[in-house]
Write a structure and sequence with these properties.
Layout lengths: L4 H20 L9 H11 L5 H34 L5
């Protein structure tokens, strides 16, 4: 009996997006917004000036604080779920 290669390629074509989605798991959800920070700080300060450097540092601190808050919320949710199980 002869195999149909078209059926194999069609099934591979249909499975490829599902497998590609699995590869993206574990990737960080935050997108690098360095370009946005640069554009924001360039709008109000000259590049290389002390004000520009301070603006970029402030934006970095704000991003780090937001990331730590999100991590803390996730940790708290996990602890809540472990300590308060619901029974179906």
């Amino acid at each position: 009996m002869r195999r149909n290669p078209g059926r194999f390629y069609l099934s591979l074509l249909l499975l490829a997006p599902l497998l590609a989605g699995c590869l993206e798991r574990g990737q960080p959800t935050m997108v690098d917004s360095g370009g946005d920070d640069d554009a924001f700080c360039r709008a109000s300060h000259a590049v290389g000036s002390p004000e520009y450097v301070a603006c970029r540092k402030d934006r970095d601190v704000q991003r780090a604080n937001a990331s730590s808050r999100a991590d803390k919320r996730q940790r708290n949710l996990g602890e809540y779920m472990l300590n308060n199980p619901t029974r179906p």
